[in-house]
Each structure stands twice: as structure tokens, then as C-alpha cells.
């Protein structure tokens, strides 16, 4: 029989967070080995539970959750989201501008599917959350990666953005707070991106899923609050701030210059209708979450578990010879750099798989986030301090062996990048 092959649309689609190394980890677990997984920001497996009032509201409303809802979502959660946009100072949002989805992930793909024709280009940050790059490719578009500058705290390089705009560029993606770097963008950077979008008539896709997961009293500014004459699609949800990944409750908000986007919005409405609706139980959690006690503040504030784990992971990583790391101001991740003179890595996926096999720690290589060189990896700092210390010690041991094998153990004292 002739082989049955995957669609050619998937040829340029990559999602290494759950890629080949993850498959190797599954095989090892089936053999009875215990793996420390620092590859996915799945809070529940690290005993970060959702707020009790969210769970109770879902239980109480389960009898009402069996039917289809409006294709854009129920009235009450969309109303709550509308109020939240007002808190974020995003102007002019109506109920019709809000779409609830099975997580923000579904809406990312929907937003790209409705927009892109073959050959259309979308500016995506490097490094990025790889679903953005995959969604552009799957929709027939071409992802063009603009550099975020590690030496500047992982801020988007505005000049690089400008250089990469062509007549085919339709949109720019802004991930703020950023996954995988943990960077948080100040107003001046966001305003410069808005200016570029305005000048080139680009749509701004704003991924703000970590907008409450902020450290050191940092404040988040929604880019859509900075202009009314640019079209913005802002995405958020319950997965991270409310530790509700499996509830698949996310939303997308259209704001700004909507008058010239009627045809695109009609396309979004068509796609929303085709999937009928997002899951109803998850929708029942949204109003309670947004209007209730914001327990995320207890986790990221002084003495909070996430803050302690961020500080510990950063301290232990940057104590390893040849490892530097910009300390994240937000989110659940850090993106350390391995000095190429000390760690001459050619294939970072193979490097990460060797770490897995030798030390039973699962990470994701930097190129899995569309970074340009095999010299970074992403660390999830969700395990408790004992497990996190164990994981960092295993990484340190592996890197010590790597230096010994490659004869790069002698070098000058390093400087950490704060």
C-alpha cells in the first residue's frame, strides 16, 4: 500500500515543546525512570491549583453547561472580559468585539486563518512562543522573525522590525510578558511598535496571557491601550494567572481601527461559528476569576512561592560556569545562555536529549522557540524549591561533564547578566 503522508501544510510547522525529546522522555518513563519536567508551564502538576471559587462555580453551573452557547461565548463572561479591557484602558470594546475560545491557542490559529493568504508575512519575535510561528505557517503565511535583544533585557529590536517589513507584511505579534524570556516591555518600546504598525498599516496581535504574573512590583501595559487608529487583537485567558490550564478558557478582543477591518472580522465570525462554540464549563469560570480575589498576587509578591522559585532558579543557574541569564520580570520561565566558547553546541536538540538521558531532566532547546543559535534553553521554574534545587544541580553536573569532555573547563570568572 502507498504510504499515507501528512499534509504539506505541516511541512514548516514545528512545536518542539512537545517534540522528539518529549517522546524520548515518555519512553524513559515507561521504563520506570523518573523525569524532572521543566519543559511545559503546566501549573497543576506542580500543585498550583486554581482558586476555589472558580472550581465551585463550575460545579454549580455544570447542569447548565450541556448545550451550545453563542459562537462567541456566553453573555456574562464576555461582559466580564469587556470590563477587564476597561481596567486595562483599552477603549471602545463592545460585546461583539470579544471571542471566547478553547484557550488562547485556538484563537491564535483562528486569527491567522481568517487573515492570511499564501505568501502573506507576519512579524513574530525571536525567541517566541512557537505556536505563533506554527499558526502563521499552517495558515499559509510566512513567519518572519524579528530579534529581541538579550543585551537590552530581551527588548524587541525596533530597527530589526523596520528592516523586515515588506509589501507582504500583514501583522506583527507582540508577546508581552514574553514567553520564553520573561521580559516585560515598557511603554516606550510598546509605543514604538505601535508607531511602526501605524506607519505600515499592520495588525498588532498582542499575547498577554501572563499579564498578572509579574515580579518586583512591575506593572503591565496593554499595547492596545496606546492607540485607537491601529487594529489590535489582544489575547488572554485563565490558564496561567488563574492556574486553570485544562479548563481551556481564553479570549480574544478586537479594538482600535475596526472600520477598515469589516471583512476580516466577518471571517473571524465565520470561523467562530464553524467551531460552534468553546467549551461551556470553562466559560463559567471567567466571570468569577476576573471579578474575584486575585490570588496570583500572593504567589508573585514578597514571600510568594513563584517569586522564591524564580530567585532560586536564577541564582543556581547563573552560578554555573559559562551560564548567564537575564532575570525574568514576569511569566514562569527563564531563557539562559550558554557561552559558545565553553559549550560549543552544534545541535541543541541533541544536547537537550543528552541531558535528559544522563540526568533525567527535561528542558526545551532554544531553537524550539525559533531562536537563531543553539546556545539557549528554556527553564520552567514551577517545581518546589527542593525539586528545583535537585534539577539545577543535575543541570550543573551535566554541564560540568560537558566542559570536561570538550576541554573547556578553564576560563576567566564570568559575569551574570541581571
UniProtKB/TrEMBL annotation:
One Pfam family in the UniProt entry: Aminotran_1_2
Record keywords, A-Z: Aminotransferase, Pyridoxal phosphate, Transferase
One MF term in the entry's GO annotations: transaminase activity
Cofactor or coenzyme needed: pyridoxal 5'-phosphate
Protein name as catalogued: alanine transaminase
Family assignment from sequence similarity: Belongs to the class-I pyridoxal-phosphate-dependent aminotransferase family.
EC number assigned by the record: 2.6.1.2
Aminotransferase class I/classII large domain location: 34-395
